[in-house]
Amino acid sequence: MNGRRPFPNPQALRVFLCVAQEGSVGRAALSLGMTQPGVSQHLQALETQIGQALFHRQGRRLVLTKTGQDLLPQARRVVQALEEFVQAAQALERLERGRVEIGAATTMAVYVLPRYLTEFKRLYPEIRIKLESGSSERLTQRLLQGELELAVVEAVEHLEGFERQLFYEDELVVIVPPEHPWARKEEIAPEQLAEVPLIVREPGAMTFRVLGSALEQAGLEVNPIFYTDNHEVTKRLVLEGAGVGIVSSVVVRPNVRVGNLRALRLKGLELRRLFWLFYPKELGNPAAEALKNTLLS
Amino acid sequence: MNGRRPFPNPQALRVFLCVAQEGSVGRAALSLGMTQPGVSQHLQALETQIGQALFHRQGRRLVLTKTGQDLLPQARRVVQALEEFVQAAQALERLERGRVEIGAATTMAVYVLPRYLTEFKRLYPEIRIKLESGSSERLTQRLLQGELELAVVEAVEHLEGFERQLFYEDELVVIVPPEHPWARKEEIAPEQLAEVPLIVREPGAMTFRVLGSALEQAGLEVNPIFYTDNHEVTKRLVLEGAGVGIVSSVVVRPNVRVGNLRALRLKGLELRRLFWLFYPKELGNPAAEALKNTLLS
DNA sequence: CATTTTTTATAATATCTACTTATGAATGGA
DNA sequence: TCCATTCATAAGTAGATATTATAAAAAATG
Questions:
Q1: Looking at the domain that runs over A10-93, which CATH code has it been given?
Q2: Which terms are listed as keywords in the entry (chains A, B) (predicted)?
């Protein structure tokens, strides 16, 4: 069996409505932009399908039967529901509605994304955004499973079916309180880290891993005295004089600086972290497309 | 241009809903009673039509995109409206709903139809009946124009596209009050009508015309002193002693008799009136069909 | 009352749609 | 690595949906 139609053709319903309104097959055809025989055929098809006459044909006159009158409102509801469907789809396309779910590595989510999201909200006030922060691994996973449409994470590798663009170039810096002996320096030698109490993020965090591998390549070893799960905690501890911190540079940028923390580079070490925006090759959701563009503009 | 489709195919919407619910193309196909490629094609067609992805294909996994989630309720409404349409049509067919409009010559409407309509109401309590009374000519007109589906009228002639069955055989009778000299008779000679004050219906009414033509054929002439537009008025006048009435026999049948009116036949005159039930050859409205059967049973 | 005009229905036909089966490709588990 | 499962694609077919052309019937007109 093929070409079968389990329920009435909405085009026929539309024809039905139009003929009922216009009171004439010919005028309905005109109004619907089709030819008159097509209208006749649709009407007949609908009538045989429901097994009842919708119109009374007395010569050229067409009068709704009682059945026709009774079915008119139901037919109207169908057509209206269909129109609302396409309107909803168009509204999504025109960004008058919609949702995006984006994931971002915690550091980005806290220190960088807010300003973009604010801008996006200004451009498309009706679109709902859900921001999920977490580890790059977890977010990458969620992206692959289609539960996120965009993700700002550190590149693990190329992801099949996805594209990426560089979003943010970060580096790790050493932070010290203003009264610290290093406070006036621009940079210090990595070896000096062994002489001070170190405050870093917990071993699981990417921040820590970047640091660890860099120091390892340099043949150095450090003994942190504090592990934190939060850059803000690190900053506080450093300000209190508990030690020297190592954090992403974004957390001491002008607008997020706390107190008079000083930031220094580690001489000769490459501590850069690259954050990429990942997105499916065909992301298909106009709202996600728009957010992507905002993020990359 | 042909085969065009101005708005989405509801079958595709149904597929969309089912895939979203089942979470799998294959299972949706099974549940919809079609093969898997058909489902895939419907989904793709819908997606290209609205220009957005509804599902995220990560390998074999299918996850609703945000767009898909947003459009799900609208799609559901369309399918539901369609189902309600067919249900409404079926309800009409099963006589669980519906309307009939029947016309009947005044005499029939007042004295005969009520008991049939009561019976019909008992059989099909949900069906609304509208009874229109009036002259046979007017009702025939309305029937031809499709504004009535059934009509109990006196036969004018054969109506093209309509059928008829004898519904009621009536005759005109003379009525007199119980104290009248004729009260004990079964019938009287037509000539005697000239000797008494006559009360008849107005010249426009069929009752009058039947009488007139019968008397004319018999070469008689009468001079009514009262014209009424209502058999009840005639009966009252006769009872009060105002004269002798000529009415349809139905109006003095046992259950509609007022007082002790006596009815007499006119000897040698054929004063029968035949009331026919007229209906379109294909009346297409199950409710009308049912009422027709009740009337003829 | 015959003729013309208007309007709907039918016929023949072409294209597009909506299925089918057969097959390929990719994923996930053993 | 192989196998099973699942979705996508290809090719083919019956049916649906439109078209144009034409007939038939009813109203309008002279």
A1: 1.10.10.10
A2: DNA-binding, Transcription, Transcription regulation
